[in-house]
Amino acid sequence: MTPISQGQNVPFSKVRHTYGSVSQNFGDLYYPETAGPHPVIILLHGGFWRAAYGLDLMAGLAEDLAARGLAAWNVEYRRVGEPDGGWPNTLLDVAQATDYLRTLAGRYQIDLQRVVPIGHSAGGHLALWLAGRHRLPATSLLHTETPLALTAAISLAGAIDLEHVWQLNLGRGAASDFLGGSPSEQPERYAHASPAALLPLGIPPILVHGTADDNVPLIVSQQYMQKAQQAGDQVKLITLPGADHFALIDAQTPAWSATLQELDAVL
Questions:
Q1: pTM for this structure?
Q2: pLDDT of residue 36
Q3: Cα(101)–Cα(105) distance, integer angstroms
Q4: Among candidate residues 238, 161, 172, the one with its CA nearest the CA of residue 198
Q5: What's the whole-number mean pLDDT along residues 149-178?
Q6: CA 255 to CA 247: how far, in whole Å?
Q7: How far apart are the first and last CA of the chain?
Q8: Among residues 3, 25, 201, which one has the least CA distance to residue 96?
């Protein structure tokens, strides 16, 4: 098999699917027009969980992945500023979209044994949360009885520790807006929504982060890595000198090439 990172020119198609009952419950599936089954990458956009940003942020990565022979499931979800956005529905939507791959696998050549979420910024939080949701207590609003198993999870400049995000006041109160208050006001929400609170995830988290990131500073990934290692996860941090926040979702950058090399390793 040709390594993903070496690049291919595989023809692919794109089709939109609805995974739930509200208008934001949709995703674009990019799938190679070659014999499968194909690994599937779940793409989760950022924007500090707010309605101003959408799945178009990840469209370029989806096209690049499909041209390399992977299926890409670019997901939209309810966000803060929309009806019922934020806690808990943003998380419930992403979980439902992920488990909907079982339905899509019946129609497309998708390999459910090789599923990797990749998220950017707030989407990085969602990607690692998906990897940890099997650890939620049965009493949690976010609990899923049989969550789809993941191979790995990749955070691109992710807001992956919600208490730390709140402490740094990233996105001018983004964590409070998302969860309806501070960690002291909403301790259970932070405990159930933050990947850092769900450690160990039990699958390898891969963190990719630039040193010139002004939106989510590198220290967020560095401190998460320390917590994950202490909990027993085999976490990997790829530090990209001089890369800013948005270089990580530009398919033409060395930052994306570094992410593709990590995908090669886990797939």
A1: 0.97
A2: 84
A3: 6
A4: 161
A5: 98
A6: 6
A7: 11
A8: 25
